[in-house]
Amino acid sequence: MTVAHFRFYEELNDFLAPQRRKLEFELRCAEAATVKNAIESVGVPHTEVELIVANGESVDFSYRVREGDRVSVYPMFEAFDITPLLRVRPAALRDPRFIADAQLGALARRLRMLGYDTLFDNHAADEAIRRRAIEESRTILTRDRQLLICRDVTHGCYVHALQPAAQLREVVERLQLGARSRPFTLCLCCNAGLESVAKEAVLDSLPPSVAQHRHEFKRCPMCERVYWQGDHYQRMNEMLRGLLSGSPQ
Length: 249
What we know:
This protein is α/β, with parallel strands linked by helices. It is 27% helix and 18% strand.
């Protein structure tokens, strides 16, 4: 066995047993174990990690843990650009294209509301989610740690919050999405980009009160759902304004 000392920072502590949180602890690893194996052995998905420092030097997931090593493990840095130090993946977890698992359908709709390309299929198996994420360079959103621990997953985000509104705030703040949002540009149902449409083209599908008082409309080219700036739009807009006003720009 190899004995090393590990310290995890910030939200990574949420994955640890209580007695290991926010302090350095001794970890016994198998001979020639990689630092990725060691990190995941204590319950931290590798996709949550952005920087690993072993004995003062930035290393990647393939680094072999040695006797007496002191390893510090960090999540995404919100205030600093650490690109020159990155070793764990070619790019940081900041690509605003997502795929959500079966537990996060409401979050997927809210991210689409912000204009973020977010796939969701309530019946998709984990293997299909991983394959689509890899093929399309998407970040996986999930509450399933086992999905993020899979070797082929490189970009993922474990969502801690349970309620959709809190989940949205968590993802927006952690991944710094506020400045790149484009609210009300995607269909909430099928994720396609909305297109402006003449009132005459959708008149037959409008409620009488909407046809009388509204004049600007957008339509989804895929499912043909029609959108307009009614009371529901105003409520969503107020919610998003409060959310984005507190986000890093």
